[in-house]
Amino acid sequence: MAPHDIRRPFKRAAISDQQKRRELSLLRQAQNRRDAQQQARCLASSILSLQSAAPESQPEQSDIEIETVPESEQESEAFSKDLDVRQASKLRGPEVRKWFARQLMLPEWMIDVPDRLAQDWYVFARPAGKRCFVVSSNGTTVSRQRNGSILHHFPSALPAGAKIRDGSGLAQSYCILDCIFHELDQTYYVIDMVCWNGYSLYDCTAEFRFYWLNSKLEESGACNAPSHYHKFRFSAVPVYNCESSGLYAAYTGVVPYAKDGLLFYNKHALYQTGNTPLALVWKDENCSQYVIDTDGKGEIPSQQQVVLELQDDRKLVTSDDPPVLFGCLDGDIIEKAGLHTGNLLRFAIGDGGLSFADGKLEKADLIYLGKSNRARAFADSYSKVLFQFMVRHSPLKIDDLLASINSANDQEKTPSDIEMRETEDALLGYYQMNCMQNAGDRCFFGIN
């Protein structure tokens, strides 16, 4: 199967795996409402309580020694993504990385064009920088990266974010922002709002969250220049409806930060922790410096590299839920390298590449390279592997996205001659026979 056939061209009628998961995710979030207020409080308390052990003389240094825990502890099965605040505050090493990584909403990589892109999606240029949670509470503000380490500990103009003369606000007041710290201008660019002034936004749609983000952030004074009680400036990113003009503006428009691709958010999506197909990232060489993954030296390897997790049955899987199987590792390699269940392993994709049948991964030519960087929390996602594979062989281009939008608009605005003829025939049949019968089928394919 040709590489470009793994994505859904804008004219294809069949539903892709990623589109199917988008629909299931929307259905699931409507059926499974969580206690959002409790989750927000747990996250805010955990981020702040974890920093309490940090030395006062070094407030901006990481208080988590990621690489000092023994290997046996690193492979502990005691970790759970559902830990409460008391348990989370005791985590260390890789367990901290996993816990914090699971609190962020992580976009999948766009491997096909979503249905109703112009009607149901936002788009904005992603700032290049460090993804982090920013929490303000009890007169202080802390930003933590995905690995759990403190990025900054500082006063801010966010509600309850600084100890000022007239007090720091109500004790129960706190904010949680999903940000990217852009080092060049020392600014926190807010890409999502999880909680504001004690009010949880977990169960609010992206449409509502973005509205609050723009209005509340400006009102708070957090967008002002740095001052004694406000060390870093915050800024919202320009968000557009994903119509042709909006997509073009996000893609080519001038922004005060370096771009690292485009982010697409489904307007109806709640803030869902972990990987979600309702948020998508897309890149090309015109809007990102890093389209193809680089190695530790910052160079593009000759062969695509992937990181997979080793399971107890020697299977190699992605970080998805459920995980996607890429193959099995030879027992001799496991024994010689001293590998264990849960290890993250790096592989190169050989000349055989990735083979697909009916939209499903059938075979992967994997070459074992060794253990992954120990700072990593998870294996690669299936969508990332496919996106990187497509970039090297047959990338999804900006023209494909624009063509999808324009095609959908044409279909909505102007019925085809065939459609008009069918309508006329149907009306004629109604008056002649008082009977009209229609049938239609829909095909599904993807990874089970």
Automatic annotation (TrEMBL):
<dbReference type="GO" id="GO:0005634">
    <property type="term" value="C:nucleus"/>
</dbReference>
<keyword id="KW-0694">RNA-binding</keyword>
<dbReference type="InterPro" id="IPR017336">
    <property type="entry name" value="Snurportin-1"/>
</dbReference>
<dbReference type="GO" id="GO:0061015">
    <property type="term" value="P:snRNA import into nucleus"/>
</dbReference>
<dbReference type="GO" id="GO:0003723">
    <property type="term" value="F:RNA binding"/>
</dbReference>
<dbReference type="GO" id="GO:0005737">
    <property type="term" value="C:cytoplasm"/>
</dbReference>
<keyword id="KW-0539">Nucleus</keyword>
<keyword id="KW-0813">Transport</keyword>
<comment type="similarity">
    <text>Belongs to the snurportin family.</text>
</comment>
<dbReference type="Pfam" id="PF21974">
    <property type="entry name" value="SPN1_m3Gcap_bd"/>
</dbReference>
<dbReference type="InterPro" id="IPR047857">
    <property type="entry name" value="Snurportin1_C"/>
</dbReference>
<keyword id="KW-0963">Cytoplasm</keyword>
<comment type="function">
    <text>Functions as an U snRNP-specific nuclear import adapter. Involved in the trimethylguanosine (m3G)-cap-dependent nuclear import of U snRNPs. Binds specifically to the terminal m3G-cap U snRNAs.</text>
</comment>
<feature type="domain" description="Snurportin-1 m3G cap-binding">
    <location>
        <begin position="103"/>
        <end position="279"/>
    </location>
</feature>
<protein>
    <recommendedName>
        <fullName>Snurportin-1</fullName>
    </recommendedName>
</protein>
